[in-house]
Design a protein that fits this description.
Helix content is 30%, strand content 29%. It has eight helices and 15 strands. Strands 7, 8, 9, 10, 11, 12, 13, 14 and 15 form a nine-stranded mixed beta sheet that branches. A six-stranded antiparallel beta sheet has the order 2-1-6-5-3-4. The chain is globular, with a radius of gyration of 19 Å. The structure holds N-(5'-phosphopyridoxyl)-D-alanine (PDD).
Length: 277
């Protein structure tokens, strides 16, 4: 079943009503994480929670719980919800206060949802996906996993309107990442991906996949690459908590490589799945 947590209480998801003055609602003034749970084990939970701490610090938001306390709450939620394969959404905001922009004198709010996993099917992994190239219209601190996702939402919807799974974003002539994924191009056996700076989210899956690539002896270059480079790539792929390692087989009207997931993507995904266990 689905379960929610709001400011200290576990409740049925449908019964939680967020106060109108909650700053997540009023301003998107908060940060979040999405953690996938495989067979009862939250995958790379520590890494996600450390990133949450870093995001909170970057927006000057004091974490109301330690990483260890959050881990305990997540385990408790999964047990209460009786979920083995799940997605945990965790959000921390600057609390509940009458709407004034500057920081309120209020404790942060913590909300979580525990829901059954919505995994992509094996057919999707085997076929790969089409993506659309779109302008990256986001702010300059994309390394913060902030609630302000309006440009991401608009890009994802434009991509969907064009029959695409994802929008791959371009800023100042270079591919940054997807609207909710990191993006990669493969050329001559080398994997290229945008450096982990302020212009992309430092994906937890990205870090795991770079590790997996090193173990497989696949060279990775964290370098800027252009949309043209992507269009001419031998292979391309996306990574995220929910999409794992997902081949891009078409970018707008251009077929990538053979139009099927290539050998490097398949190797990385297989090894990544070993990590999941
Ligand atoms: N999205 N880039 C962006 C902009 C993202 O929103 C995400 C994750 C990623 C991949 O990060 P990770 O590997 O840590 O999941 C990259 C989550 C899944 C979401 O918003 O639903």
């Amino acid at each position: 079943m689905s379960l929610a947590f709001f400011n200290g209480e576990f409740l049925p998801t449908e019964s939680v009503v967020i106060p109108i003055d909650e700053r997540g609602h009023q301003f998107g003034d908060g940060v979040y994480e999405v953690i996938k749970v495989y067979d009862g084990k939250p995958f790379l939970m520590r890494e996600h929670l450390v990133r949450l701490e870093n995001s909170a610090k970057a927006i000057r938001l004091e974490m109301p719980y330690s990483v260890e306390q959050l881990e305990d709450l997540i385990h408790e939620g999964l047990t209460r919800a009786e979920l083995r394969d799940a997605q945990v959404y965790l959000q921390i905001t600057r609390g509940i206060a009458v709407r004034l922009h500057a920081f309120p004198d209020a404790p942060p709010s913590v909300s979580m949802t525990f829901r059954p996993s919505k995994s992509l099917t094996e057919e999707v992994f085997n076929a790969g996906v089409k993506v659309a190239l779109l302008d990256d219209e986001r702010w300059l601190n994309c390394y913060i996993k902030s609630l302000n996702l309006l440009p991401n939402v608009l890009a994802k919807q434009t991509a969907a309107d064009r029959g695409c799974f994802e929008a791959v974003l371009v800023r100042d002539g270079y591919v940054t990442e997807g609207s909710s994924t990191n993006a990669y191009a493969v050329k001559d056996g080398v994997v290229y991906t945008h450096p982990a700076n302020k212009r992309i989210l430092h994906g937890i899956t990205r870090a795991a996949v770079l590790q997996v690539a090193a173990e497989l002896g696949i060279e990775v270059r964290e370098e800027l690459y252009t949309p043209e480079f992507l269009l001419n790539a031998d292979e391309a792929f996306l990574t995220s908590t929910t999409a794992e390692v997902l081949a891009i087989t078409q970018v707008d009207d251009t077929v990538i490589g053979t139009g099927k997931p290539g050998p490097i993507v398949r190797k990385l995904h297989a090894k990544f799945r070993e990590l999941i266990g």
